[in-house]
Automatic annotation (TrEMBL):
GO MF terms, alphabetically ordered: hydrolase activity
Name of the top EC class for this enzyme: hydrolase
Name the record gives this protein: SGNH/GDSL hydrolase family protein
Domain SGNH hydrolase-type esterase: 34-283
EC id: 3.1.-.-
Annotated keywords: Hydrolase, Signal
UniProt cross-references to InterPro entries, sorted A to Z: SEST-like, SGNH_hydro, SGNH_hydro_sf
Signal peptide (UniProt feature, chain positions): 1-25
Classification lineage: Bacteria, Bacillati, Actinomycetota, Actinomycetes, Mycobacteriales
Pfam families: Lipase_GDSL_2 (PF13472)
Keyword Ligase set for record: no
Organism in which the protein naturally occurs: Nocardia aurea
Length: 297
């Protein structure tokens, strides 16, 4: 999902910066680079939580996203975060336009942050390549008996989202190979997307998506994550499975329990503006804990 700076600036900003606890058990790293899309940026609409240290404001990168928590917890001296809302694998190599209103500009190619001395890389990418985030917006309906996503994406027995996932696999593979080429000695961790949508029929009308479409979205998320796991195995990088530990924390759950927000652009964790169907602070902290656990195991 691409975030306009006008939307970021318009939202009230309330938030408490949380950091993961220090871990002394992890091996030492000198240079950490984080790559990816809005789920790697942990994109936020709370203007006070948006950082422009490494990327334009239009990337909506959260000042305490999971990669920053990892860098702080492991006391990594050199850290660069290229993650940007709306990013696709092609944006590893080219400028990504962001900010059409107040802050027009571009996020420079994400691979520009990698060097031969980079020794730790995390990457979360692929959701925008397949169009899953954009598909969610087309699922909204006033009638739970109507399933616009199924009608749009499954035509004559062919699931076009499944086709998109298959088509994106070589691009994600190429992204990992590009990391290896630029930072051959780096430890590379590929994350997946945790369970923001569960195959439980949903919670209409709180989230106005039909039970059929909710289950379809949940199945496509599992399919996307399975593709990312295959790429990790094939390319020999480490796979950080955030989906596995996230059951029961989908967007239909109560505040304080859910780790991702639904369609209402507000979160109580912490109170303030939220990006629909993206991690709230609890989800961000969960991502950070999972990566730190992988690094310190």
């Amino acid at each position: 999902m691409r975030i306009t700076p006008a939307l970021v600036a318009a939202c009230a900003a309330i938030g408490t910066v949380l950091t993961a606890p220090h871990s002394s058990a992890a091996p030492g790293y000198d240079e950490y680079v984080a790559l990816g899309d809005s789920w790697a940026a942990d994109a936020t609409l709370a203007a006070a939580l948006v950082t422009t240290e490494f990327v334009p404001a239009g990337c909506a990168q959260r000042i305490d996203n999971y990669s920053r928590q990892v860098a702080a917890a492991l006391d990594i001296p050199t850290f660069r975060d290229a993650a940007c809302a709306g990013a696709v694998t092609a944006d590893m190599l080219v400028d990504q336009p962001v900010g059409r209103d107040l802050w027009p500009g571009a996020n420079t190619p994400q691979f520009d942050r990698l060097t031969p001395t980079t020794d730790l890389v995390t990457v979360l990418i692929g959701g925008n390549d397949v169009g899953l985030a954009a598909a969610v917006r087309g699922c909204v309906t006033v009638d739970p008996a109507v399933s616009p996503c199924q009608r749009t994406w499954v035509v004559d027995g062919v699931d076009r989202m499944s086709r998109n996932i298959a088509a994106a696999e070589p691009h994600v593979t190429a992204a990992i190979e590009g990391i290896r080429l630029r930072s051959p000695d780096a430890r590379v961790l590929m994350l997946d997307y945790f369970e923001g949508v569960a195959a439980n029929g949903g919670c209409f009308p709180t989230i106005p998506i039909s039970p059929t479409d909710v289950d379809w979205l949940a199945a496509k998320l599992v399919e996307l994550d399975a593709m990312l796991a295959r790429v990790a195995r094939r390319t020999g990088v480490e796979f950080v499975d955030t989906y596995a530990g996230s059951a029961g924390h989908d967007a239909c759950q109560a505040p304080g329990v859910r780790w991702a927000e639904g369609l209402v652009p507000y979160t109580s964790d912490p109170p303030g503006p939220a990006l629909p169907f993206h991690p709230n602070q609890l989800g961000v902290n969960y991502q950070a804990r999972t990566v730190i656990s992988a690094l310190t195991a």
